[in-house]
Amino acid sequence: METNKLIRFTNPETLPPTFGYSHVVEVRNARTIYISGQVALDKSGQLVGAGDMSAQTRQVFENIRIALEAVGLFFEDVVKLTFFMTDISQMKFVREIRDQYINTQNPPASSAVEVRKLIQEDLLIEIEAVAVAALDPQ
What is the pLDDT averaged over residues 55-65? Predict the structure, then answer.
């Protein structure tokens, strides 16, 4: 299904069914924005949601939202998310928060990886994003 002339989301019938992600996202004639892995730290660098995957995930998505807005974009412009989690069995809670931010009709391509630990011992999740926007006419 195509949402605009820049991005086309596809789930070939010959691949397994998806659960909140698209198998293929095609981007044409656009600028690409890479957002570094975001963690559950607030503006002052303080941890949000110690021991709480849902609270940490919400803070991470808020940080991504702020990063997107800084370049004039929104979650609809995100074409790829990569999740790094210390406990992949918590993915249900992550998806519940994620679905409050992304376009669930045309979700971005995604990968999820369980890691032993993140940059700080008390962090449970890190998410990086790739977004696209129309080329600036110059």
Answer: 98
